[in-house]
Amino acid sequence: MHVLGRLFLGAFALLLAVPVGAAILVLALLVDPTANAWLTGGALAGVDMALSDLSAGLPPEGLVILIAGLAQALFVLLFVPPALVGFAGEVFSRRGLLWYGAGGGLLTAAFPWLARGAARPEASPGLLAAEARLTLILFVVGASAGLVYWLVAGRSAGFSRTDQRADQHAAGA
Question: Domain of 107?
């Protein structure tokens, strides 16, 4: 019965952590000037692509593909890190604030680097600075989602010794 309760509490914690991470991501993208310019340029390119398809009498398939890719990227960045850190916290009975905050932040910041694979051979200093800023933004997004998860479910993660004794006593009775 304890496992079912922990499952519901973890799902509720994710239900709260993901929108907080999304709100922090939107706020950071709007506040950071480089990310804001990149976001504006991407939005204008998407609108231009959709309008050119519509004016040619074609359905806006490119826009649908763009939105599907964006949804997949947001799922990977906003849902997967707190879910993995929360699951690992439950399995290993980790209850520390640092586990959920830093773990979520590091995992979220690492996903773009892991997806890209090897580092590029030559990169300009401006590009490296932009990547560093984006990595910091993603760390803050993951850390905030991890902290919300910790507030809801992480402080009581896993089995404590009293829970194990109570479960053993209930099984023996």
Answer: 8-32+75-168
